[in-house]
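FIELD: query
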Amino acid sequence: MESILDCLAALGLGGVVLGTVLEALGVPFFPGAVVMILAGILVHQGTLSFPVTLGAAFTGYTTGSVLAYVVGKNVGTPFFQRYGRFLRLPPERLLQAQALPAYSVGLFVLLGRFIPGLGNLTPYLAGLTHLQMGWFLVYNSLFALGWGTVYLGVGMFFGSRWPAILAFIEPRLLGFAVLGGLSVLAVILYLDGKRRFRV
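FIELD: result
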């Protein structure tokens, strides 16, 4: 983990911007929250400044969200019907997602990222439903500021306890934990494949 921190410290604010752009674009399995927590640890250590780091995260998140919004608005449903499976959005879930913003577009943009399976697709769907860009930016900015502040705060909180955490985690135990997690994932994928094959 120290090497990851060193890498992020070397990348500096550029790494924060890149990480939040990828997070906002909804890149599958990209740990944007982890990047922000690590950035918070660097803020605690004095390597980064909190206001500047939050500004970099806000800039990256807004950039990624606007790109996703433009794709959703200009490419639309055919894009999701063709490539939705790569974003973990099958056609039936797309139909459900398209119905959600009708109830409250503002709440959907603010809270939609917390809905399992739809979270990182929120800006695409906002564009798909032709939400006005101005309102999208307002709601998205509120979320981006809250999201960035919370995860930076978590990193800053654990930053003071980081040496104790590293001392507590034995490298061998960590290796066994990783192997165990991979084994569980393999079993889940195997069982899921068998279920689909039967269907």
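FIELD: remark
The CA atoms of residues 56 and 89 lie 29 Å apart.
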